[in-house]
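Researcher: Sequence recovery benchmark, item below. Answer with residues only.
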């Protein structure tokens, strides 16, 4: 099991639920990354990062991934140049991400980020743990304070009445039929 539970290399100080307060420094980038209390909470943070950046850029996967990689200012060329400072192949990273998003949506993009950001043994640990990915995706709709642990997040989710990042409640369907996903 990866010691950081941070499959997306989320930077320290981002305020995601499940952070332990411990950090580690990237060997090649020198950046400080956070550690999570469980793989699910680390994956949840990646889902939230992806969703937030896609919303910010109106579904433009290229711009969302450029920002994820650190290229968040300037022209597209300047963004790629900034993204290349801590990443060997930002163009390939983004192309693979776009392909994954077009194939599987948000979950596919998260899986591709896991592939891009991790060594093979860590990557396989996350990708083979489909239950953790599914749980993280479900938990990612919750608006949780940073001090929330994985166990607490599960309790909140299982109660069924909580605020969502998309708004509203997720239980108590007042309609006599099951709504279809949009």
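Model:
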């Amino acid at each position: 099991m990866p010691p950081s539970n941070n499959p997306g290399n989320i930077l320290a100080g981002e305020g995601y639920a499940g952070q332990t307060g411990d950090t580690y420094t990237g060997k090649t980038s020198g950046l400080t990354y956070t550690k999570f209390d469980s793989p699910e909470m680390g994956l949840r943070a990646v889902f939230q990062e992806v969703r937030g950046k896609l919303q910010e850029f109106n579904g433009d996967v290229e711009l969302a991934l450029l920002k994820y990689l650190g290229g968040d200012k300037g022209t597209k060329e300047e963004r790629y140049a900034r993204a290349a400072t801590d990443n060997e192949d930002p163009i390939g990273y983004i192309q693979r991400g776009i392909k994954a998003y077009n194939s599987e949506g948000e979950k596919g993009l998260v899986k591709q980020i896991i592939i891009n950001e991790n060594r093979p043994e860590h990557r396989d640990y996350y990708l083979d743990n489909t239950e953790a990915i599914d749980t993280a995706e479900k938990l990612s709709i919750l608006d949780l304070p940073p001090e929330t642990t994985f166990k607490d997040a599960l309790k909140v989710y299982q109660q069924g009445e909580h605020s969502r990042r998309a708004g509203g409640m997720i239980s108590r369907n007042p309609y006599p039929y099951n709504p279809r996903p949009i």
